[in-house]
User: Which sequence fits this backbone?
């Protein structure tokens, strides 16, 4: 049966985990300034690293022409270059292997009829999005090879959001196979809660987007104090670093850091409102527990963000902060999925919803 095919379900879960890993590992590559070490995109020949001294010298000579070497790593030795090269090479290798892990099983499932062609759109979209992510990755890297030693923060954020779109589609499809495809039904009494969940997701994605801008602008280093920035609640020059004033919200490290720092509490507020609304409307215990988990995770995430600031953006703490953001995104999607399964309150004396039975 298509809906309960174990191989298909396992494949979707594996791809979901792999996408999450690639996002976090991509953050590690960025934090170690390894992402610009390979200046060409060779999908086939790039699988094999340089072999022999002559090949390494050629690759190193290409890197020495980049802004990053000339402005940041001037005087770097070949041995030091190999360290950052291998990190980026390994990152691209994993992405290539992940692509094969997506494409080969996908076409196998289609050819064998495991995935009916009439229902193949989301699975084909996963494959196409994965390929598009590869293009966006190089599009992002290319922006840092021209005139400045950093990638475009806009391209980095687009790359991140596309990864989340791919992760969300894959995770949602896995949920359908794991717990059952939801039937279409009227919103009922849970319609308001359903809309509130989507608003919570929108607010969370806005905050994650600003996290991408912070990463691209290296705005985490603007201030190592909290709650004050440069000794003030509202730092000087918040809207006057660049012109026109509104561009500061997207291009000024100080302003981007400020927005990301405080908008986290808007996410916390939305999660709190959702949890209280779920309790008031008599939602299932599974849904309430998921909402409480979301609220707790956001609290942890805020503490992690403060710690990243206080300790000067240590790599391990920054990666934990990024991984928690992905977990928050997944938990919020799970909330919405549950609401699609059951959109009407259950009487207290018979509160054993179908979704809980499926979960068991």
Assistant:
């Amino acid at each position: 049966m298509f809906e309960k095919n174990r191989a298909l379900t396992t494949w979707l879960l594996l791809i979901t985990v792999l996408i999450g890993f690639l996002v976090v590992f991509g953050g590690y590559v960025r934090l170690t300034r390894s992402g610009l070490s390979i200046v060409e995109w060779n999908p086939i020949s790039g699988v094999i690293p340089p072999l022999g001294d002559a090949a390494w010298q050629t690759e190193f000579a290409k890197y020495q022409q980049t802004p990053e070497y000339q402005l940041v790593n001037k005087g770097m030795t070949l041995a030091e270059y190999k360290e950052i090269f291998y990190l980026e090479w390994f990152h691209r290798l994993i992405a290539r292997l992940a692509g094969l892990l997506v494409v080969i099983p996908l076409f196998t499932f289609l050819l064998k009829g495991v995935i009916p062609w009439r229902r193949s759109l989301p699975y084909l979209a996963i494959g196409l999005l994965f390929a598009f992510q590869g293009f966006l990755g190089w599009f992002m890297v290319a922006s840092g090879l021209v005139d400045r030693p950093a990638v475009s923060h806009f391209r980095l954020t687009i790359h991140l959001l596309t990864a989340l779109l791919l992760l969300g589609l894959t995770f949602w499809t896995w949920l359908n196979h794991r717990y059952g495809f939801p039937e279409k039904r009227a919103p009922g009494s849970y319609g308001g809660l359903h809309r509130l969940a989507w608003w919570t997701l929108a607010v969370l994605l806005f905050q994650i987007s600003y996290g991408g801008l912070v990463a691209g602008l290296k705005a985490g280093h603007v201030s190592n104090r909290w709650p004050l920035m440069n000794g003030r609640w509202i730092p000087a020059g918040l809207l006057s670093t660049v012109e026109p004033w509104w561009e500061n919200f997207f291009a000024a490290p100080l302003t981007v850091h400020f927005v990301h720092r405080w908008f986290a509490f808007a996410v916390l507020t939305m999660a709190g409102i959702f949890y209280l609304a779920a309790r008031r409307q008599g939602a299932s215990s599974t849904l309430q527990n998921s909402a409480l988990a979301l609220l707790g995770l956001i609290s942890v995430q805020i503490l992690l963000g403060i710690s990243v600031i206080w300790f000067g953006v240590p790599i391990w703490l920054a990666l934990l902060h990024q991984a928690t953001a992905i977990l928050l995104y997944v938990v919020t999607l799970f909330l919405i999925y549950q609401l699609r399964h059951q959109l009407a309150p259950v009487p207290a004396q018979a509160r054993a919803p179908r979704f809980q039975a499926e979960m068991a």
Observations:
- The chain has twelve helices and no strands.
- Residues 186-360 form one domain.
- The radius of gyration is 23 Å.
